[in-house]
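Task 17 of the worksheet. Students: predict the tertiary structure of the chain below and write it out as structure tokens. Keep your answer in the requested format; marks are given for formatting as well as content.
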Amino acid sequence: MKNSTNGNNKKGIGALDAVIIIALVACIAAGVLAFLYSRSTADPVATENDMEDYVISFEIYGIRQSNAQMLKTGEKYYTSESDEFGVMNENLTITPAVVYVQGEDGKCYKSYAPENGDYTKVDISGSMTVKGVRDSKGYFLLNGSTKLMPNKSIIVRNGTIAVNINITGIEKVSG
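Model answer:
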């Protein structure tokens, strides 16, 4: 019986292999250059003297009512990285949590979470006073380093509770 090998076993790098390798090296080089360029054009970190007071408006969705009572006005809150976030203002508004339910007709309808003792769900809106600065592009930098903007969520905590807040607005304190 004859061995049916095709005698055309190639060894080495073909043209397609070379093109793929060159494209891969070019992509890596472009990524490194983009990273270095973004670092060289970034605004310098603001100093303590550059910091100004801002008010961040926020909303918290679907939190237990018993947990909502742990949010204390006048208390300092921190980020999950232990950086100072800000101080809770007194204007907390607690409303029944909005839920959407599907009716028998297949359409979704806005409703509210049922009362269930300590497990009743509520939505909260409020504000915190924070320190920060605007960079040259107009972005708000919390403590001069963390970029925040409306519709961004961030976890903040005090000594008893951690909550995920959704930022709805950032305004400079006048005066």
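Marker's comment: Helices lie at 15-41, 65-68. The first strand starts at residue 52 and ends at 64.
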